[in-house]
Amino acid sequence: MQSAGRSSAWQWWVSGLLLLATMINYMDRQTLANLAPRITQQLDLSNTQYGMVEATFGYAFAFGSLFFGVLADRYSVRLLYPAILIAWSAVGFATGLSRGYLSLLVCRTLLGFFEAGHWPCALIVTQAVMSRGNRVMGNSILQSGASLGAILTPVVVLGLVRTNPDPDAWRLPFFVIGLIGVLWAVAWLLVIKPGDLKRETPPLTAGESPSLPTAWLGKILLDRRFWALAMMVIAINTSWQLIRAWLPKFLQEGRGYTESQALLFNSAYYIFTDVGCIAAGVATVWLVRRGFQVHRSRVLVFLGCSLLAALCTLAAVLPQGWLLLGILLCVAMGTLGVFPCYYSFTQEVTISHMGRLTGLLSFIGWLASSPTQTLFGYVVDRTGSYDPNMAILGWAPLIGLIAFVLLWPHHPETEPKSDAVTAPTLSPATATAAS
User: Which end of the chain, N or C, is surrounded by fewer C-beta atoms within 10 Å?
Assistant: First the structure.
């Protein structure tokens, strides 16, 4: 779908704005991880406490996904989206004022809650402005903003704190990065005009009654595709979020790299996540043009990315050196490359309730993966090593793909209809909605 009167290039300008929004989202999120060694030392936090701070971010993100998923379906995303972005930017700024474990915990919780609103809004936008064949590419551009934000954050942190011995030097990056969101909100309102993202409500057929507000939930829960996506998002979110949160500490405390070396490598790491993300979109488009079915193309690309992510097991046994860093760059490409495929799978299920579906899946993914942050820190405190955790993380995407393939029904490919879920086609064996 594309807004009436808009040029074909307009959808790519919108994708660029979504990329920048994701970039800001990850800059606010990654500032803590990049400064974790300094912050945990000044505030006297154990690895278990740091894991709890990241876990509460995830719990809040889970509930925020549900909350903003409903809001995104009910209200104008044109206005809701910038309001959410300004809110999380303000919380990011306030994080720099933290004076202890409790205040850091509160700020991180609020950040997770408001940042959750980005994804339902963004996926509604890509679904509205992109054709079905271009959605993986559009979602790749959207997701690549995570890499761009994660690339820039270590550079900003390094430029602002570098070798500054002041115990409070870590606060300045939170202030600087927290101010960026206002500029994006202005640009968004200039590019997206009223009516651009309006979604049509399907007309009722003869004798049909309006559905209850929660009727969509029952249909979704009876759809095998929903459970396939739930297994997939738990798997990919666990691997991505744990590596995101712990990589700087793994490099500095687990492999002996200096702060500057670790921050510079973090930038390189996220350059490669961006490469993987964009490559996933390009590969899918190439396979489709070569005659592969859209769904099969996405599965093949997801498989390739999963195999790259599994190399994390090898990284866990390697010492400091170029081979370790090279393997981690391969892991980077794989762990983010799976996301555009996942987003495109979700867009096959519904149009009218895309925000609710995205929010519900995000809720499940974050609620399931967040406890592993505390567990990760506990294992490090008990063993003194990051290696056991790193050894198993990379296999999560492949496990998620296996579950997805087993659960996703095999039906002719169709564009989703503008209702709660695609009109169901029931068979004696499986009461599942048609794909």
Answer: N
The CATH number of residue 63's host domain is 1.20.1250.20
Whether 62 contacts 237, CB under 8 Å: no
339-373 pLDDT per residue, tens? 989 988 887 887 777 777 877 888 898 888 888 88
Residue 54 belongs to a domain = yes
Q: Which residue in this structure is represented by tokens 């929004």?
A: 21
Contact 410, 295 (CB under 8 A): no
Residues with Cβ within 8 Å of residue 287, at least 6 apart in sequence: 296, 297, 300, 301
Task: Give the pLDDT confidence score for residue 6 in this predicted structure.
Answer: 60
Q: Cβ of 307: how many Cβ atoms within 10 Å? A: 15
Q: For residue 262, what are its two tokens?
A: 């670790």
Q: What is the DSSP letter of 370?
A: T
Q: In the prediction, which pLDDT does 366 show?
A: 85
CB atoms within 10 A of CB 260: 12
How far apart (Å, rounded) are the C-alpha atoms in residues 360 and 234? 12
Contacts of range 29-32, beta carbons closer than 8 Å, 24 or more positions apart: 29/57, 29/111, 29/115, 29/149, 29/244, 30/149, 30/150, 30/153, 30/154, 30/244, 31/92, 31/95, 31/153, 31/157, 31/173, 31/174, 31/177, 32/95, 32/108
* Alpha carbon 59 to its chain's center: 14
Contact 243, 269 (CB under 8 A): no
| Cα Rg of the chain, angstroms | 21
423 domain-assigned:
no
Q: Which segments of 75-134 does DSSP mark as H helices, in order?
A: 77-95, 101-115, 118-129
- Residues 196-242 pLDDT 10s: 666 554 444 444 444 455 677 788 888 899 999 999 999 999 998 89
Do the domain assignments include residue 236?
A: yes
Helices (H), 194-293: 215-221, 224-249, 259-289
Strand partners, 434: none
Residue 433 lies in a domain: no
**End-to-end Cα distance, the chain:** 19
- What is the token pair recorded at 259? 């702060």
Give the whole-angstrom CA distance, residue 254 versus residue 240. 19
CB neighbour list of residue 164: distance below 8 Å, 6 or more residues apart: none
How many structural domains are present in the chain?
Answer: 1
